[in-house]
Amino acid sequence: DRAVAEEIAQALKNDGHIVFFDKDSLPAASDYNEQIRRAIKAADRFIFLISRNSLAEGKFTLSELAFARERWPNAEGAIFPVLIDKAAPIPDVPAYLRSVHILQIEGNAPVEVSAAIEKSRLVSAKCIVGAGAIALSLVAAALLFMQQASFLIPDAGLTVL
Q1: What separation in angstroms does the CA of 67 have from each of 1, 37, 78, 83, 115?
Q2: 79-83 sheet: strands from edge to edge
Q3: What is the dihedral of CA 26, 28, 31, 37, to 10 degrees?
Q4: pLDDT score at 153
Q5: Which one-letter DSSP state was computed for residue 154?
Q6: By CB distance 3.0 to 4.6 Å, which of 33, 54, 81, 102 could disulfide with 97?
Q7: Exposed, middle or buried: residue 123 (CB in 10 Å: 0-12, 13-18, 19+)?
Q8: pTM (2 decimals)?
Q9: Could you tell me the mean pLDDT of each successive run of 10 residues in the chain, 161 residues long?
Q10: SS3 of residue 10 by DSSP
Q11: First-residue to last-residue Cα distance in the chain
């Protein structure tokens, strides 16, 4: 599945993402397992390419998935399972991956994966902006309350900045 993975990695890099890809990201003579664990711990998202190869018993892809599950016990919003092999047996896909929507490629895998990641970024940004607006509203309410309190007790020494 390396060719598809390389194309997806490049599409994400072209979109401005920092991508950990074993071929490009692992220095020679480094501890392979530890480097991958660290990369998963530092990541915002994890893309798992579902194929007969990636689901085969003994594959390191399943170990990487275990590391991702440690990092994100709740897969929602962080784990992106992508079906790249329509012959892959869906019942063999780990329940952790099936707990979120599996992206089924209909056309070009790099384009569709890149679009799904971008859409997830936009949703996350809206949530952050919404939370910020709530926080700003609370701060404004607190300042308003303190200003009113200073009028109620003029000599209390209350300073509103």
Answers
A1: 20, 6, 13, 20, 25
A2: 46-50, 79-83, 103-104
A3: 0
A4: 33
A5: T
A6: 81
A7: exposed
A8: 0.73
A9: 91 90 67 84 93 94 94 94 95 96 95 92 48 37 35 33 29
A10: helix
A11: 59
